[in-house]
Amino acid sequence: MNKLWVIISETYKSQIKSITFLLSAFLPLVLALLVMIPITMMSNSSSSSSGEDNEPSTALISNQTQIRNNFVKEYPKDMDHKINNEKQAKNAVKNGDIDGYVSLNNNGKQITATYHGNDDMDSDVKNHVINYIHTVQNKLNADNASLNVKQAKIMNNQPIFKSTVSSKSNHGYDENKDAKHLSITICIFAMYFILIIYSSITAQAIANEKGSKIIEVIFSSTTAMKYFIGKITAIAALILTQIGIYIISGIVVYELNAGNPLIKENQHFINLVINNLLGIPLLYTILGIILYVILSAVCGALVVKASDANKAAQPVVLVSIVAFLLSNAFQQFPNSLFYKICSYVPLLSNYFMPTRIINGNVGISEVCISIIILVVTIVSISWFIGRSYKGLMLQNSNNSFLIRLRDGFRYR
Amino acid sequence: MLEIKNLHKVFENVTALSNVNFIAQAGHITGLIGQNGAGKSTTFHSILNFINYDGDIKWNGHQITENDFNDIGYLPEERSLMINLTIEQQIIYLARLKNKTVAEIKPKIDDWLNRFEVKGTKKSKIKSLSKGNQQKIQLICTLIHEPKLIILDEPFSGLDPVNADLLKREIFLAKDNGATIIFSSHNMQNVQELCDRLVMLNNGNVVLNGDTQEIRDSFGKTKLYISTDKTREELLWLDHIKSVQTRFKNHYLIQLDNESAGKEIFEKLVGNQYTDQFSQEPPTLDEIFKMKAGEHIE
């Protein structure tokens, strides 16, 4: 147990300080930050231009004080209260204090609103002004037509438009569907990239050890099985660290931007995506990567020269690309027989089953069976390779990959 | 004590070791010599359980298992260090794999670096060291946990004569502490100086096995180093002379056809006169090695 811990801690410590790990763990965060900053700025700028937080950029003047006061009372944040005559308004526009002003005139028959300004009127304020003069004009029409209260009320009746959508969301689109699609995309792409990175890290580290012959010294100190299990456990811990960094960074960014209108507006959508990604799909991601890492260790053990270390992971990367492309190609047909079969096959299930889980078209029993198959495969392959690891590492055959693999397993 | 009985190993159709038998005693240094491909590394790999084999290898009366790994110090023939680690990290990591704690090893590192006169500090990266210094670090990693069974495959590789002497000193120290030491080398001078016992392999077979001096003596003291005013041609006229080689002025190396001829030649060439050299010796290990490997010795 002590030696196993030494191997785990040493491998973990050496890998966590490696450039590859630091880049793979933190570069996506830096890129995400670089993308988020302008979005946040745009969002804040949009909220400021909508007049929610800052001083109003429009003034309202009128030949009838009552009409002006009623508007200001109804929409207190829309207009600059201090400006109440045309001279003040013109000066303010000239000085750049406001973008423009609205002049409301009532000649007893017609309400006229005229906007004067250096810039377009804010769309929200414009809508409020239009609604307001529409109401005032209706009242003026009713008065001029000498309608009684009942008739005026009847004239004010408006048509009603109702909308009923099946989604629980109160937005006008299928938020749930979009959240699923985004979740699947994130899950598969994240898995693919983490898997490629860790396959390379593992294969390269092991190939370097083989090339340097340090492995002979190590095998004179501990068993090959213990060493192999220690290596894989350390890499698994590294994967968990990276995923942990992403989750913690996500929580921190989310909390720091909790007040951001963009986040507030999409709160429900974000929650849906997070719920889709955490849990079983995350478990599949971790288990899938571990399985590929184990196979990468075999590839690393089969290199002939230390200089070939960077090419060691190629066979596993190739399998991963095929699985990735297949899962993408068949993503639109998650109920097809092919998709269902693939969601049970190790090396493929980690790509296929999360899609079915997120889409909600798989039962818990099927998920359990698939996970059990994956876990049993990982344990069996680890045991089998652990037993043959000494041979794989010590064989120095110079033949093709498959012959080297055969020789490694036969090495006695 | 390491006991090897009837060790036999076949790789596919090639017999690498055939019925190898020898014993390496505690407190003794055993040299394993032989040409490239003779089976030295295969013997070491068998002892370390890297490969399956037929026969018996017993360490203190039992098969070597994982429990014995902590008592073994093994130096492979090729460079075997993690070049991105510092000297200290490398030594501690390998010592921890021998069940030593950091607290046990860390205080010893400076002393070992001084003993081997390593150029660099314990914080130096392995990759920044010269080949010879890397070899010294490997040797420290092999010896620092005070193993009881020390297996050194070509330990003098990459070491100049001065550094080779440092290693010899450490090997003798380990011997004095009761370790069983077995090593291979192509440098017969080092083997001759160090080994109590010698095992020579040729094509997987043991062709020599025994006490180093006894083996040399068994070949007869047929080499005669003499100083005389006689010429080479005059010496060749003497009986029992196979060959005469001039070493430098008035100094010759004579190859006798039998050991007892030395006395007769002494009487003829020296008698009651003074001579600054008359030395009758057995062949060197180098010569025995070449002889046994089938090469011609002049």
From TrEMBL, chain B:
This is ABC-type uncharacterized transport system, ATPase component. It comes from the Bacteria. InterPro entries: AAA+_ATPase, ABC_transporter-like_ATP-bd, ABC_transporter-like_CS, ABC_Transporter_VariousFunc, DrrA1/2-like_C, P-loop_NTPase. Pfam families: ABC_tran, DrrA1-3_C. PROSITE patterns: ABC_TRANSPORTER_1, ABC_TRANSPORTER_2. Residues 2-228 form the ABC transporter domain. Keywords: ATP-binding, Nucleotide-binding, Transport. GO terms for molecular function: ATP binding; ATP hydrolysis activity. It comes from Apilactobacillus ozensis DSM 23829 = JCM 17196.
